[in-house]
């Protein structure tokens, strides 16, 4: 009996060591692979969900834990979360939604597409995959879409995790004077430029300009003032004193947690993926324990 227990302990130790080794390898690969590199493939499956005139692509990493839907920002696809994912709980059932016209989702958004439209897209994906309740998160425009989903279908959400997802366009002006890149290194700026070129290879300048204005036509103030869904808001300080909630247009509510990432700017999930991942894991774990 004692021998069997020792063997079991040894097996458990080896399994844990193997899991840690795989995590280290994944982290190293994520750090070395540029954003404009190949799509996420090993361990992922792509779903194409029909919409009027096209399809939405959702890249899934199956897990036994709660579902977390990640929504990219403007002009980004699922690859933008490459550096963040290794720092998220490996048990999460991850859904990486690609907005219209980006990644493998098509067609491109028409001028009448709104953040409300993209919020409904997220719910269509959840419906298609038979996901009843889930956490929703996103960066920039994706964070705004996440807040919109909280307004449209609060009964479906376990929580919202917004990574620099503006309450409205005025928040970017009042809190940061539209500073999005001041903390990025030259290599990070070059990587972002090449990634954008790759992502928008078949977009015209007119299409880019139209989609870039989408975030200015939405305001999530009323949603944040009234929602009963728990919200985590993560922002970068830009090496300056943190902005106030008033400047960010985020109401003072216990249900909305505001956390700052020192020394980062708008791309917090790329500049400090480990810290952002830990904050997201803590938020999800806390909500699931209630």
Question: Could you please describe the fold and organization of this structure?
Answer:
The structure is a single chain. The protein has 290 residues and is of the alpha/beta class. Helices cover 41% and strands 18% of the residues. The protein has one domain: Alpha/Beta hydrolase fold, catalytic domain (Rossmann fold, 3-Layer(aba) Sandwich). It has an 8-stranded mixed beta sheet, sandwiched between helices. Strand 7 (231-236), helix 8 and strand 8 (256-261) form a beta-alpha-beta unit. Helix 2 crosses helix 3. The longest helix has 31 residues, at 2-32. The chain starts with a helix and ends with a helix. 39% of the residues are buried. The model is unreliable at 19-23 (pLDDT under 50).
Rg estimate, integer Å: 19 Å
Average the pLDDT over all residues and give the rounded result: 92
The class by helix and strand makeup works out as alpha/beta
H/E topology pattern: HEEEEHEHEHHHHEHEHH
* CATH-defined fold name: Rossmann fold
Shape: globular
Q: Helical residue percent? A: 40-55%
Percentage of residues in DSSP E strands: 15-25%
Largest sheet strand order: 1-2-4-3-5-6-7-8
Distance N to C terminus = 39 Å
Q: What's the CATH C level?
A: Alpha Beta
Largest β sheet strand count, sense and barrel closure: 8 strands, mixed
Give the domain tally: 1
CATH architecture: 3-Layer(aba) Sandwich
What do we call the CATH homologous superfamily? Alpha/Beta hydrolase fold, catalytic domain
Strands, total number: 8
Q: Which residues form runs of ≥5 with pLDDT under 50?
A: 19-23
Question: So how many helices?
Answer: 10
């Amino acid at each position: 009996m004692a021998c069997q227990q020792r063997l079991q302990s040894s097996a458990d130790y080896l399994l844990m060591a193997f899991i840690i080794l795989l995590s280290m390898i994944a982290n190293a690969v994520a750090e070395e692979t540029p954003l404009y590199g190949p799509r996420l493939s090993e361990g992922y499956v792509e779903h194409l969900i029909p919409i009027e005139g096209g399809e939405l692509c959702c890249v899934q990493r199956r897990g036994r834990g709660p579902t977390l839907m990640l929504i990219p920002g403007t002009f980004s696809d699922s690859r933008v979360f490459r550096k963040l994912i290794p720092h998220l709980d490996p048990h999460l059932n991850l859904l990486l939604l690609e907005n219209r016209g980006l990644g493998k989702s098509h067609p491109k958004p028409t001028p009448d597409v709104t953040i409300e439209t993209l919020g409904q897209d997220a719910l269509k994906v959840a419906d298609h995959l038979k996901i009843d309740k889930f956490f929703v998160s996103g960066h920039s425009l994706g964070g705004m879409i996440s807040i919109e989903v909280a307004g449209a279908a609060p009964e479906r959400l376990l929580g919202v995790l917004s990574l620099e997802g503006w309450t409205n366009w005025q928040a970017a002006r009042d809190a940061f004077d539209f500073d999005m890149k001041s903390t990025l290194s030259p290599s990070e700026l070059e990587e972002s430029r090449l990634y954008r070129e790759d992502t928008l290879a078949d977009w015209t300048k007119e299409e880019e300009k139209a989609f870039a204005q989408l975030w200015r036509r939405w305001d999530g103030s009323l949603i944040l003032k009234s929602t009963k869904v728990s919200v985590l808001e993560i922002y970068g300080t830009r090496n300056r004193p943190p902005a106030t909630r008033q400047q960010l247009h985020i109401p003072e509510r216990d249900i909305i947690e505001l956390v700052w990432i020192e020394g980062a700017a708008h791309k917090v999930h790329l500049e400090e993926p480990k810290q952002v991942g830990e904050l997201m894991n803590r938020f999800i774990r806390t909500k699931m324990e209630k």
